[in-house]
């Protein structure tokens, strides 16, 4: 027998508190399931329905609420959820993010009280030796738990789990348990930060509320005090925001399973290590059983009473060494393969507890040496995965959703959009979106995670350092098996207090030494610090050439983790998120949707003026929508294309990563997103998708160099062809360049600067096609550019003749849903610019979302054609039996164009195309 090792018990992340045990376990079974002939020790389920809540007035006691006693004022509650989400569900308030100003719609007093939550649930009749556990995956901010009249424990901080053993209480429950949870209010709060369009800044120009005192609370959703991308949320997202579950085990409990792997340099073998954290009611001998990759194993161990741990390695168990392992790859580089480990503990022929852990095998290197501007050689942040250099192309998430309405399918859809946009990383800003669902989705879709923790320089540090570190510890233990997690980071834009820096470094060294810990997103001050990265914007619209200047290989540092722009949604979504009275009159409703961008471009009014100056007078809201899509596309595309065009061999400071601020919107917004709050992908999304293709041909907006980007492992040989067109669609010039592009690098293959300058036109369209050595097309790209000899913006685009297009829309239904396929062809001479497709329900006229085409905002020269596809899942197919396609674009000759239905209605989006009223109606 193997004697378990008690020495590393604390490193397993378990601590005794409040009469219970804090840790992690898997769940299976159904609450209240009927007993079998030989009842199993292991069972459980989620307590997700039947909840009620009430504001705590100091009168009701936990002993009364955790009983069958009547309590006045209880109302239905959404769990997981917040008090405000429950109130919205109960009809007390409308959704404040649509057609309202949040602070005018919901009183800011919701944050000023604690809340009682209550539920009754059936529990099985206990069998001898069985133990009963309650688990809370997240309570914001302070939780006190009562069961059947007895206080069982507390939990502090929004990101810490709590597990309580309640065996003795349940044994007396007679089949029914009454659970009550007191959710405590924040220790520190500010008054609301109010929107003001006229001010030109967002909510007073200060993040974190008027004073930032909210940040003193420690681990919570401090951004809900009001940020430049989030209105003040009246309840500050208090509540039971993550699932509540119950579970039974035998006398021995598997409190945690940590799986680590060591991949050989040649990637040919991997050694897997499994550490089990155990908690036993008494000393005994148990059998550990498991399987990995179809191979089963078993081992007998002695377990002492209390907490202990045991480590299983390939030295002990042969199947923990994998030959030719399947690897977990970031998106775009290979399959993000995940192995499943199953492990159970058995005694006397009965399963005491069991777990399933999905994990990935990958090898990460974090730095490359680079000579800094000071002349010293420093280790710069540069990611290599499985010996493959990775140019980080990522997005920042501020919060998954403003009111924490994050069912698993919505969250998976958000991460899936990042995968389909060709991104490979999400930065979880200040850890505000830390959930099992989030990391599981990132694992599935191959998205690396830059995992921040809970400190920001926008206010004072957390007052309770021990509480902060306890939440950090639990997050590391809870999520460290996820292959998507790239690194841990102490906080945002500046170093936390030294005790937090020291504490984080020590926790990572103890709990997860294979990963690195950065001090903050602005720099690293730890032992053997990592250099070469920063935050700092720009956060507003700049012309594409500016991004290429900032990323031309001469600017330090090479990794930029915050840079963003305005990102205006579609006409339909703007009308949805604003009251009709504000559609064409920017006001405080626009400001609550963050149009001021905290002063970038001179606030909302400045951005509107910039749009008019670049693309012409804004005539009405549809005209603003179409011009904004061009503004979105050219700036956001350059945010990614500039680093792509200057990676690896560019120098002296080649780009190693860029993370856009932001990609996921927490609320309906005009700024910092690549899709809208209802998950509609507007032009920003396709700008990202086009810029981040793993093989690409890019036009440098500063130099007019033609650059081939090759992120892959094999060289590319062929030709890059560039064709220039005028406003009328006539071909103005053509160039062809030989391509011999090395792996994981960019190659400048030529320049069209001289040819563009010779063209007697202010505006030139450039179509670029990359072909391989067999003349097969690999990728194409498209630009509208100013002639640098007479740069005057793009107001002349309104003088170009309208395009004539053919659109054929078809649908095919299959077992998993519906595929929508649309053939689009330019059948005229003028360029078809930014042709936009929407899927909609013909019966209601509403957009079907999420429904993202394989390509959109199409740019087609004369005679060019493309086929784009979108998938609707089975649920969407059930709810939308009659699917249609709406078409709009920059300028379209509707009378000459041809729309044809092959199973899907095809129509022009007349409202979006109505951009030329007799008298302009847009006021700004």
UniProtKB/TrEMBL annotation:
Source taxon at top rank: Bacteria
Boundaries of every Glycoside hydrolase family 2 immunoglobulin-like beta-sandwich domain copy: 252-362
- Signal peptide boundaries: none
Domain Exo-beta-D-glucosaminidase Ig-fold per the UniProt entry, residue ranges: 788-890
Q: Which UniProt keywords apply?
A: Glycosidase, Hydrolase
Pfam annotation, one family: Ig_GlcNase
- Which InterPro entries does this chain map to? Beta-gal/glucu_dom_sf, Beta-mannosidase-like_N2, EBDG/EBM, Galactose-bd-like_sf, GH, Glyco_hydro_2_cat, Ig-like_fold, Ig-like_GH2
**Keyword Ion transport found:** no
**Isomerase: is it a keyword of this entry?**
no
Q: Which residues form the Glycoside hydrolase family 2 catalytic domain?
A: 383-516
Question: Where in the numbering of this chain does the Beta-mannosidase-like galactose-binding domain appear?
Answer: 65-242
Q: Which PANTHER family match?
A: MANNOSYLGLYCOPROTEIN ENDO-BETA-MANNOSIDASE (PTHR43536)
So what family is this one in?
A: Belongs to the glycosyl hydrolase 2 family.
Name of this chain's protein: Sugar-binding domain-containing protein
């Amino acid at each position: 027998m193997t004697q378990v090792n008690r020495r590393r018990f604390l490193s397993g992340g378990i601590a005794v508190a409040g009469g219970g045990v804090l840790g992690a376990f898997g769940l299976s079974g159904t609450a209240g399931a009927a007993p079998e002939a030989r009842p199993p020790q292991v069972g459980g389920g989620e307590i997700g329905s039947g909840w009620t809540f009430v504001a705590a007035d100091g009168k009701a006691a936990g002993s009364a609420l955790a009983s069958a006693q009547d309590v006045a004022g209880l109302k239905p509650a959404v769990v997981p959820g917040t008090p405000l989400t429950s109130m919205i569900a109960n009809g007390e308030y409308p959704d404040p993010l649509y057609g309202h100003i949040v602070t005018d719609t919901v009183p800011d007093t919701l944050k000023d009280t604690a809340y009682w939550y209550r539920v009754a649930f059936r529990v099985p009749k206990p069998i001898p030796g069985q133990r009963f556990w309650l688990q809370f995956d997240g309570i914001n901010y302070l939780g006190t738990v009562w069961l059947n009249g007895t206080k069982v424990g507390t939990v502090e901080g929004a990101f810490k789990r709590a597990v309580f053993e309640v065996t003795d209480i349940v044994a007396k429950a007679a089949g029914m348990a009454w659970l009550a949870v007191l959710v405590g209010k924040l220790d520190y709060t500010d008054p609301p930060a109010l929107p003001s369009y006229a001010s030109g800044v967002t909510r007073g120009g200060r993040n974190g509320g008027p004073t930032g005192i909210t940040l003193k609370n420690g681990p919570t959703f401090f951004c809900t005090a009001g940020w430049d991308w989030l209105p003040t949320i009246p309840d500050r997202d208090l509540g039971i925001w993550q699932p509540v579950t119950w579970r039974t085990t035998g006398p021995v409990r598997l409190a945690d399973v940590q799986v680590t792997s060591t991949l050989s340099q040649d990637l040919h073998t991997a050694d897997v290590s499994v550490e089990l954290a155990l908690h036993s009611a008494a000393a005994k001998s148990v059998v550990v059983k498991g399987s990995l990759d179809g191979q089963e194993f078993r081992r007998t161990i002695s377990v002492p009473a209390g907490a202990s741990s045991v480590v299983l390695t390939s030295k002990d168990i042969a199947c923990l060494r994998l030959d030719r392992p399947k690897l977990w790859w970031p998106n775009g580089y290979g399959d993000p393969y995940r192995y499943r480990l199953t492990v159970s503990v058995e005694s006397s022929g009965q399963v005491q507890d069991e777990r399933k852990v999905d994990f990935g095998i990958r090898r990460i290197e974090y730095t490359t040496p680079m000579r800094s501007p000071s002349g010293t050689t420093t280790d710069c942040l540069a990611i290599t995965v499985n010996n493959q250099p990775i140019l980080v192309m990522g997005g920042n998430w501020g919060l998954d959703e403003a009111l924490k309405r994050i069912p698993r399918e919505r969250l998976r859809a958000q991460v899936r959009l990042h995968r389909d946009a060709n991104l490979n990383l999400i930065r979880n800003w200040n850890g505000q979106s830390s959930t099992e669902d989030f990391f599981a989705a990132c694992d599935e879709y191959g998205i690396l995670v830059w995992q921040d923790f809970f400190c920001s320089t926008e206010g004072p540090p957390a007052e309770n350092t021990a509480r902060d570190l306890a939440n950090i510890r639990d997050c590391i233990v809870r999520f460290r098996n996820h292959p998507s997690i790239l690194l841990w980071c102490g906080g945002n834009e500046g170093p936390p207090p030294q005790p937090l820096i020291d504490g984080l470094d020590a926790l990572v060294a103890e709990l997860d030494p294979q990963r690195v810990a950065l001090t903050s997103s602005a720099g690293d001050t730890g032992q053997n610090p990592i250099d070469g990265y920063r935050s700092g914007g720009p956060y507003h619209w700049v012309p594409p050439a500016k991004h290429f200047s900032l990323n031309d290989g001469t600017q330090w540092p090479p990794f930029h983790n915050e840079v963003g722009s305005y990102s205006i949604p579609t006409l339909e979504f703007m009308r949805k998120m604003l009251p009709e009275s504000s559609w064409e009159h920017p006001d405080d409703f626009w400001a609550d949707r963050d149009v001021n961008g905290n002063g970038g471009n001179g606030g909302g009014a400045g951005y509107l003026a910039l749009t008019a100056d670049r693309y012409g007078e804004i005539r009405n809201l549809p005209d603003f929508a179409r011009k904004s899509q061009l503004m979105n596309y050219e700036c956001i595309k350059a945010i990614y294309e500039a680093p792509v065009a200057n990676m690896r061999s560019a120098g002296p400071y080649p780009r190693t990563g860029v993370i856009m601020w932001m990609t996921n919107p927490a609320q309906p917004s005009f700024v910092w997103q690549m899709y809208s709050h209802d998950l509609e992908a507007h032009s920003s999304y396709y700008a990202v998708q086009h810029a981040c293709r793993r093989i690409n041909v890019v036009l440098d907006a500063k130099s007019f160099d033609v650059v081939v980007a090759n992120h892959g492992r094999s060289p590319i040989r062929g030709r890059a062809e560039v064709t220039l067109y005028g406003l009328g669609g006539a071909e103005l010039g053509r160039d062809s360049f030989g391509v011999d592009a090395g792996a994981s690098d960019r190659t400048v293959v030529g320049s069209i600067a001289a040819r563009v300058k010779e063209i007697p036109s202010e505006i030139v369209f450039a179509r670029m096609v990359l072909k391989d050595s067999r003349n097969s097309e690999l990728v194409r790209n498209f630009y509208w550019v100013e002639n640098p000899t007479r740069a005057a913006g793009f107001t002349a685009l309104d003088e170009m003749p309208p395009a004539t297009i053919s659109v054929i829309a078809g649908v095919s239904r299959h077992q998993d849903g519906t595929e929508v396929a649309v053939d689009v062809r330019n059948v005229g001479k003028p360029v078809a610019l930014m042709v936009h497709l929407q899927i909609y329900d013909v019966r209601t006229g509403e957009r079907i979302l999420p429904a993202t085409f394989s390509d959109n905002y199409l740019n087609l020269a004369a005679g060019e054609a493309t086929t784009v596809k979108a998938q609707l899942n089975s649920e969407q197919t059930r709810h939308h039996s009659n699917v249609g396609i709406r078409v709009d674009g920059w300028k379209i000759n509707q009378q000459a164009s041809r729309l044809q239905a092959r199973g899907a209605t095809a129509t022009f989006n007349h409202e979006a195309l109505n951009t030329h009223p007799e008298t302009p109606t847009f006021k700004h």
